[in-house]
Write a structure and sequence with these properties.
Order of helices and strands: HHEHEEEHEHEHEHHEEEEEEHHHEE
Number of helices: 11
Radius of gyration: 46 Å
Largest sheet: 7 strands, mixed
Strand order of the largest sheet: 2-3-4-1-5-6-7
Length: about 450
């Protein structure tokens, strides 16, 4: 008997592989037959869309730049002022005995490039190393002139000798602090006359402490006895933090560099005319041509026009050798006449609008009909008196126990029925009885029950 042939029968867990596919490499004929005349669309192979990520990076970069610009603007405002376009005004005053403001001013001018000399006591200089312009003004001797200078000064140089503040200097300092104190830098003059090095060092230390006590803790003090001291003083003037004066930053103002007056009647110089004032516009607010301007000691006036001019003292200006001058060529300040700066051109002229221009009327004209009031007649007054007497007569009376004051009676509610209160008080005197007494601090509240 022969054995049957063995046949393998796979179970349900047997792995079954997929059939081999011929691949997607079709021939041109097969592709044409499959498409049946259809044209295949063009496929563009591009990069990944990164617009969303790029936009986020740009927003972050923009926010960073805005923060940086704001920080730089704050630093520049503290150093060169709010606008950064006008020269920094530096006033030089003396608050001690045995000092010379002329020597102090001339020492600063010798170390700078004089651009424009406005008068015998003021000049505009350029500080190329710090990219700034400074207008130096020497204060007059009288107190009112010093206070006027402090109104417009951004930095105040207080010159004092080794002897300290004088009686007049203390009065000047008190007046300046009452008006509004700008940034102060102490200048010590004449310390080189102290031969003893130990005493000179102690005098320098005492004067520095004096400035910190009278002005502020961050007030800087520097000696002015040599070229190195002058360079340090100029650096302090350029880099010091400017202190804000609120009443000055709340309005625009102009420090006049040049002033000219053209009378209406040439034959009569005392007649009315037009005053032309040239200078930098400063302050925290813009100037309106339709508003009024105030000239100290003269009053308020209307503006005829405002000319926007080019900068007469630019930082960088090309000049020929004939106009170039060195600081060493400058002679004494009170003997040098006013010199012309670079050519100035008028860029724009702004005229006021008569319809909205502010008038010079400083007082309101009273209008007799504005406060009109009809006075009541005699009949109306009589009727009012009758109504008032009737109201007072109809006032309800309350039953008050005997011995109660007016304040205690005010706590008792009014009786609903009208009657003579005095008779009721006498009749019901025995029927009154005190139920309870409440004490609230100093106030005594008495509750009474009336039978």
């Amino acid at each position: 008997m022969s054995n049957p042939q063995h046949v393998h029968r796979p179970t349900g867990s047997k792995q079954i592989n997929k059939n081999h596919k011929g691949g997607k490499h079709f021939t041109k004929g097969a592709i044409k037959k499959k498409n049946q005349g259809k044209v295949a669309p063009e496929v563009h192979v591009g990069v990944k869309d990164t617009s969303a990520s790029a936009s986020k990076v740009n927003r972050r970069n923009h926010a960073k730049q805005v923060r940086s610009n704001r920080k730089d603007a704050v630093v520049m405002a503290k150093r060169v002022g709010h606008d950064g376009l006008s020269p920094k005004v530096v006033g030089i005053i003396g608050i001690g005995e045995g000092i010379s403001l002329d020597d102090a001013t001339q020492a600063i001018l010798d170390a700078c490039e004089i651009r424009t000399r406005h008068s015998a006591t003021s000049a505009t200089v350029v500080l190329p190393a710090w990219k700034q312009r400074v207008t130096l003004i020497r204060a007059p001797e009288d107190l009112n002139g010093i206070l006027d200078l402090c109104k417009v000064a951004d930095v105040l140089l207080c010159v004092v000798s080794g002897q300290g503040l004088s009686a007049r200097g203390e009065r000047v300092v008190s007046s300046i602090k009452a008006q509004g104190l700008p940034t102060v830098i102490g200048v010590m003059q004449g310390l080189k006359n102290i031969t003893n090095a130990k005493l000179q060092k102690q005098a320098r230390k005492d004067l520095a402490q004096e400035f910190e006590t009278r002005f502020a803790d961050d007030t800087r003090a520097v000696a002015l006895d040599g070229p190195q001291d002058v360079t340090q003083l100029i650096r302090f003037m350029a880099n010091t933090r400017l202190r804000a004066v609120p009443w000055r930053d709340a309005r625009p103002y102009v420090l006049a560099d040049r002033v000219s007056f053209a009378p209406t009647d040439a034959a009569n110089p005392q007649s009315a005319g037009t005053l032309a004032v040239s200078g930098y516009l400063r302050g925290g607010r813009p100037l309106s041509v339709n508003g009024l301007v105030h000239i100290p000691d003269f009053g308020d006036f209307q503006l005829k026009q405002v000319d926007e001019m080019s900068d007469p003292n630019p930082l960088n200006v090309r000049r020929d050798s004939s106009r170039s001058r060195k600081a060493s060529d400058a002679s004494q300040m009170d003997l040098v006449p006013e010199t012309e700066g670079p050519a100035v051109t008028v860029d724009r002229i702004v005229l006021p609008n008569p319809a909205v221009q502010e008038t010079l009327d400083s007082e309101n004209v009273p209008d007799p009909m504005a406060g009109e009031q009809t006075w009541p007649t005699e009949d109306e007054l009589a009727d009012a008196d009758e109504r008032m007497a009737k109201i007072q007569g109809q006032k309800r009376k309350k039953k008050v126990p005997k011995g109660f004051s007016a304040y205690q009676a005010a706590w008792i509610p009014e009786d609903e029925e009208d009657g003579d209160g005095e008779d009721d008080d006498e009749d019901d005197e025995d029927a009154s009885e005190v139920c309870s007494v409440y004490v609230f601090g100093w106030c005594v509240h008495v509750c009474v029950r009336v039978r």
